[in-house]
Each structure stands twice: as structure tokens, then as C-alpha cells.
Structure prediction request, 242 residues.
Amino acid sequence: MRPDVLTIHRFYETPLGVQTAQLLAEKITGYLPPATNGLTVGLGYCLPYFDYMVERQAATSSERFLALMPAQQGVCHWPTTQASCSCLVDPYHLPLSDSAAERVILVHALEQATKPASLLREVWRVLAPGGQVVIVVPNRLRTWSNAEATPFGHGRPYSKRQLMTLMGEQMLPPDRWSTVLMQPPFTWPGATKLIRSSEKIIGKLGKNLGGALVMVARKQVYGAMPKGKAKPNTMPVFTHMQ
Prediction:
């Protein structure tokens, strides 16, 4: 069952959620070169990661951010102090023109998709030629995928091989991958203080030991087109979260 937007939001307000967002945001931004313009689209629930990216955005950058949230999940206002850049969408028919986005980030999205190939097909459509996609999913080999108290304990987790195969079939062949969240999602007092040090210590034992799998790819524009190209037919819906 997909967690709703308030459940996810509340997780990211906990000490464990704050540490989770910071570690994943650092990994995501480390894979993306500095951008001075263009559109970065987040699909799923990318708000804490966008907050991190905006905070570190260069003063001369004109990069734009758009947070798209699936209708079954719900949507909340982002950013909190400015005009909303978030909207409710059908993830299989995004309200964007072809090649509109320079970068697309998926967090809490692919593992919840009932049609994952169709979702990646739509991501391919809205990406500009050579545009980058970063996908974060629960690692099926680790304890985070069974932790229902976190957003990573819901939906279908993926192994490295499964995700690489799925992305490659949709002309999004991964060129880099890693895992984050080496420490299990402990909630006992003081556990969150160990998360960052655990990343380095446990990470030395193996690259695939993290609870979240992160893969990066660029849009391929040669060869056969992905099947079933669809036209966007949804309208954004804005709301405020109390």
C-alpha cells in the first residue's frame, strides 16, 4: 500500500528522516553536475531533496524545479514560503511537453508504480536528449525494504540487476550506481547519531549494502523508440498542507 503524502512528510520530520534526506541528497547532487538553467523535475516525493539542492544553488543559477506527485499519494505545497511549484499528476501521463526537462529525479515513485515500464517510458519522453535521470528505490537485499515505518518499506523493492534491466529496456541505460543508508533504520535513542559514521564503516565492506539503491542514466535518443508513447492529459492541482 502506498503511503500518503502526510505520512511521508512526517517521516522526513523525524530525526531518522532528516538524516536520511541529507545522506541521499548529498549522493544525488554528487551525481548531477552544477546546472545554471533548465528544468529539474521531481516525481514521487522529492521535497527534502529539492530543499537541499535549492539551498546550495549558485546565486547566478536560473535552474527551475517542479515537484510532481502521484494522485494516489497526494500533494503538498512546495516551497513553503513562495508560490507553489508542486502539482498532482497521473505519473503515466505527465503534464509536460516532450524533452521539457533537463533532469528528472524519482524518489518514492518507481517502487509504487503498477506499470514501472510505462512510468520510465514517460520519464524518457519528458527528458531532453542527453538529459539525466536519477532513480532512488528500496534495495530488496537490505532491511530498509521491510521497514514499514519508513517510506522505503512500501511498494516493490529492486535489486541492482532488476533496476538496470528495467531502465535499459526503456533506453535509460545506467552509467553509475551506488547505495545509501548502510545502517538499518534503528529508532532507539542515539541511533541517528551513528548513521553518518556507519556510511563510511559499513560501506567499506561492500558497495551494495545500503538500504536505498541509487542509479543514474542519460536519455538515449538513437535506436528504436520506446513503445506506447502517450500524450499528457492531466491538469495540475495545487493545495496547501496544514
In short: The chain has a mean pLDDT of 89.
